[in-house]
Design brief:
The protein is of the alpha+beta class. About 40% of the residues lie in helices and about 30% in strands. It has two domains: about 5-95; about 100-220, no CATH class. The structure holds zinc ion.
């Protein structure tokens, strides 16, 4: 094998692409020719350096990808965290503004009784600004007629969550909450279901505040106009 053929084959040889027969001939030539031996050695070193650079580049690329991925992960955590906090804040605000209500302090409630013809309206108003009152009513349908009214305070008129299925929240407005009783005469109440109820001294309304309970006889309601 002469030099020029050897050098033509050298690139393939160092990449292990040459046949066994060719390898044998080339090794034989290198044993005799120092120039070609050096030529192959240099070429191999160049190739090694090139491979090393390639590996470094690859490693750099992988590091870059890892960094990007961890950055993205941090971003996702941040977004999820922000959304969770927002949700929490909204839930708590919603609860306090729209759902939260508490039994009213009697000192904060102004109660008036007004009669118009045969209907008597009890009105509960908050003495405080930005507070609304709600009345939870449990009407008794038994012989001894007692209406239970629990007066609640809230930040918002929309706290109309029903407390339990057997009670009803009286419609409330900015001006307060009204509860109306219709009388046929002084001693006869007209019930919601159209029945008449002869009133006795035992027929009462009990109004529950935070600190005390107020009791009114239904009989006294008629012509009571602001006497209470
Ligand atoms: Zn040679």
């Amino acid at each position: 094998m002469n030099h020029s053929v050897f050098r033509d084959l050298a690139p393939n040889y160092i990449e292990n692409l040459t046949s066994e027969e060719t390898n044998r001939q080339m090794e034989k030539h290198m044993e005799q020719c120092e120039d070609c031996r050096k030529y192959v050695k240099d070429m191999q070193e160049d190739l090694n350096i090139e491979r090393m650079h390639k590996q470094k580049d690859e490693k750099r690329n992988i590091d870059y990808l890892k960094k990007v991925r961890s950055k993205n992960r941090k971003k996702i955590f941040k977004i999820v965290g922000a959304l969770l906090s927002l949700f929490l804040v909204l839930s708590i605000s919603y609860h306090f503004l729209f759902i939260n209500m508490w039994i009213a302090d009697g000192n904060n409630v102004k109660k008036t009784v007004q009669q118009q013809g045969s209907s008597v309206t009890l009105t509960f108003q908050s003495k405080k600004d930005n507070r609304y009152l709600l009345a939870d009513m449990k009407k008794q349908k038994s012989q001894d007629y007692t209406d239970w009214i629990i007066i609640y305070e809230s930040w918002n008129i929309l706290s109309s969550t029903k407390l339990n299925p057997f009670s009803e929240l009286a419609a409330a407005s900015k001006d307060g909450v009204d509860i109306t009783y219709n009388f046929l005469d002084e001693n006869t109440l007209l019930l919601d279901n159209g029945e008449e109820k002869k009133l006795t001294d035992e027929d009462k309304i009990e109004i529950q505040y935070k600190d005390h309970t107020e009791e009114m006889r239904l009989k006294d309601l008629y012509r009571a106009e602001n006497n209470h």
